[in-house]
Amino acid sequence: MSDIEIAQKAKMQPIIKLAAEKFNIPAEHLDPYGHYKAKISLEYVNSLKDQQDGKLILVTAISPTPAGEGKTTTTVGLGDAMNRIGKKTIMCLREPSLGPCFGMKGGAAGGGYSQVVPMEDINLHFTGDFHAIGVAHNLLSAMIDNHINHGNELGIDSRRIKWKRVVDMNDRALRQITVGQGGPANGYCREDGYDIVVASEVMAILCLATNRADLKERLGRIVIAYKTDKITPVYARDLNAQGAMAALLKDAIKPNLVQTLENNLAIIHGGPFANIAHGCNTVTATKTALKLADYAITEAGFGADLGAEKFIDIKCRMAGLKPSAVVLVATARAIKSHGGVKKDELNNENLAAIESGFANLERHLHNITEHYGLPCVVCINHFTFDTEAEVALIIKKCEALGAKCIVSKHWAEGGAGAEALAQEVVNIVDNREPGCRFVYDESLPLWDKIEAISTKLHGAAKVTASPKVKAEVKALQAEYGHFPICMAKTQMSFSTNPTAIGAPSGHTVEITEVRLANGAGFIVAIAGNMMTMPGLPKTPAAERIDITDEGVITGLF
Predict the structure, then answer these.
(1) At CA 389, angle to CA 366 and CA 494, rounded to 5?
(2) Which residue positions in the chain have pLDDT lower than 70?
(3) 338 plus 206 within the same structural domain
(4) Fewer CB in a 10 Å sphere around the end CB: N or C, the chain?
């Protein structure tokens, strides 16, 4: 059966009943969205503050390939397995974006028998969080143009507006647009553009805010533009926009509670991409899970050079989180892909490609253990076409590096197929104090932070930028030098060239743009030709998604 067919046959339990039975969450603190999903009140979240924290486990992966790696599937399978062996565990995931659901992915709620449900709801609107984020963002956009149209008392330079518009869809035609055409009645004419919602600073702010007051304060300090003197910033609070924006996010700030196919609880909240944003679910969701359960399993987007780095250097640094271990997900197919095998040949045994492509896994493993300072278990997410020789070779090469490697069959068998992985993870986290290392010190200059990420993690020989970009970094250094870096880079390679598979070294990273995310509290460094508004592929997933006369969704993978 397809993923959606498996999900639609799930025997879900009412979420209010399940929350009460599993974690004693009172019904009055849950806002139900139908029978199987609910929001947790912030009042209840705050009531947990004196509870002892559980252990935090991060799931990440090798560099993505067309073959797929399965981070969400592994996160769910591991969580189900840990509950099966008697460990009180909650999973924390990101919300899927409609862009990739209708673009390449066709769904992002796990796979096989390791899924979160209701799968269709989670993928297609869920509880409306992304809609609220998009509307809050675009309200600010409208207020900027409206202020200028009515006299521009703040002296905003319309050529230096930094706040674009957003939509939750891959639409390359909106990357660069012109607004205000049609004469004075429609405002004034200027260049503008769209990002996808998951790249919005409002998304990052929601994911890093710790309460409503923090949310509103962060929204207020968004830098929207500069004045005609070119150096004086204009903030969202100068337009008095933060209150209305926070009001639009009044429900979006509450974590969402759902269940797995095995009726274990999962919190799904927030969803920034890791290639163009910081790639982690909300701090609120993670901290809530740590208070409720003995173990919280979370994921970070794309490879460990992106999502995991941002999880450590941005999320953990800001929120004071202390992870205990990392699970690095790989598949034999993905390793062969990094060894140069074409997608239509990945089901064929190829030990030479395993030997060659293993370099990608090795570098990620090195980064996790040496630079993040965390113990790591390699999880081979098993596919039916994997051969015994391929799996044995991967295990052998991991063991040669001193790494534990576990074959996990959660996709086919659910939690039962991941019990060995779960036991290995528990053995590690129960026998070490939580904590990690940062890739760079907070006091380093911004440019040195960019260089640290690129050279230490990505294998680059040097980092370059145009004089204009270097001048912008220098200008930001004076006031924002303590901010962490959010590297926007292709997810497909350690380099900025998406076709450079394996573990390229000695390359040059060009920083083409820097953006201040003052409300989020980090600097976005865009490396290479990285778009913050993706496009649809030649054959988008939207072409196969449909609904029957009975209201049954089909085609979501």
Answers:
(1) 30
(2) none
(3) no
(4) N
Q: Is 218 a known active-site residue?
A: no
Q: Which of 130, 302, 311, 447 is catalytic?
A: 302
Q: Does some domain include residue 545?
A: no
Catalytic residue (choose from 65, 72, 73, 496): 73
- Give the residue among 526, 72, 491, 95 at the shortest CA–CA distance from 304: 491
Are 145 and 116 part of one and the same domain? Answer: no
Residue 109: phi and psi, rounded to 5, are -130, 30
Q: In whole angstroms, what is the distance from residue 168 CA to residue 197 CA?
A: 5
Q: How far apart are CA 442 and CA 439, in angstroms?
A: 10
Residue 383 annotated among the catalytic residues of the structure: yes
Catalytic annotation, pick one of 37, 39, 71, 287: 71
SS (H, E, C) 471-503: HHHHHHHHHHCCCCEEEECCCCCCCCCCCCCCC
Write 27-33 long-range contacts (CB < 8 A, 24+).
30/257, 31/251, 31/254, 33/121, 33/127
Q: Answer yes or no: are the C-beta atoms of 101 and 123 closer than 8 Å.
A: yes
Catalytic residue (one of 274, 300, 332, 527): 274
Residue 36: per-residue pLDDT: 98
Active site residue 336: no
Determine what percent of the chain falls in helix, strand and coil, rounding each to the nearest 5: 40, 20, 40
Which residue bears the tokens 């028998």? 113
The token pair that represents 135 in the structure block: 């509307």
Distance, CA of 495 to CA of 26 (rounded, Å) = 49
Q: Per the residue annotation, which of 84, 88, 105, 190 is the catalytic one?
A: 105
Q: What is the CATH number of the domain that holds 453?
A: 3.10.410.10
Q: Which of 130, 358, 411, 494 is catalytic?
A: 411
Catalytic residue among 22, 37, 55, 94: 94
C-beta of residue 486 within 8 angstroms of C-beta of residue 517: yes
Is residue 94 flagged as an active site residue? Answer: yes
pLDDT at residue 66, rounded to an integer: 86
CB 296 within 8 A of CB 54: yes
The reply to whether 418 falls in a domain is yes
Domain hosting residue 141, numbered range:
130-245
469 near 513, Cβ under 8 Å? yes
CA separation for the pair 250, 272 (Å, rounded)? 19
Q: Which of 98, 36, 2, 178 is closest to 542 using CA atoms? A: 98
Known active-site residue 199: no
| Exposure class string for 240-252: b at 16+ Cβ within 10 A, else e | ebbeebbebbeeb
Q: Does the active-site annotation cover 311?
A: no
Instruction: Tell me: do 46 and 17 sit in the same domain.
Output: yes
> What pLDDT, in 10s, does the model give residues 101-116?
999 877 789 999 999 9
Cα angle, residue 365 at apex, residues 361 and 367 outer, rounded to 5°: 120
- Asked if residue 107 belongs to a domain, the reply is yes
Q: Choosing from 130, 163, 383, 522, which is the catalytic residue? A: 383
pLDDT for 93: 97
pLDDT of residue 104: 82
Active site residue 102: no
Q: Does the annotation count 105 as an active-site position?
A: yes
Burial label, 479 (beta-carbon count in 10 A; 0-12, 13-18, 19+): exposed
**Residue 456 DSSP label:** I
